[in-house]
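Entry 14. Ran structure prediction on the chain below.
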Amino acid sequence: MKPNEFNNKLIDLKDNLKYFAYSLVSNDEEADDLVQETFFKAISNQEKYADNTNFKAWVFTILKNTFINNYNKAVRQKTAFDNTKDAYYLNSGQAESSISPESTFAANEISKAIFGLDEAYRVPFERFTQGYKYQEIADELELPIGTVKSRIFFARKKLMGQLSDFR
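Output, structure tokens:
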């Protein structure tokens, strides 16, 4: 693919990438930063894109992986190492006293909505949110990978409808 064609395809995806990034971070500025970082990585790794493959999926995968890497980096920065004999890792996140009643209510409502899902949809969705890959979920539940993906998609869609007040 020619560089100009590559850049034009990338620019055409900007709105879709922004929407997806916003769904991950729920903040306009962070979403813009994530899209910008995705553009940078896509352009920097343009030679790794194989022609006749799904360009949109390739770019969205870059965005998703960038988000995951940034999230993991932030979590690692909040983890302190205790030099005791047993070498425990301690999470030095926010103290429990700083948790607001609104966030506790929201977390309870989200948990109720997830628990209210049909088991066929809830289990794959929970596994996915715990960090399992589609293939791992499919193997564990002895389901085709396409079924796992569609169940996670429909679980998300149902939850988004039920929890529209939390957007």
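Residues 81 and 87 are 7 Å apart (CA to CA). Will compare against last week's run tomorrow.
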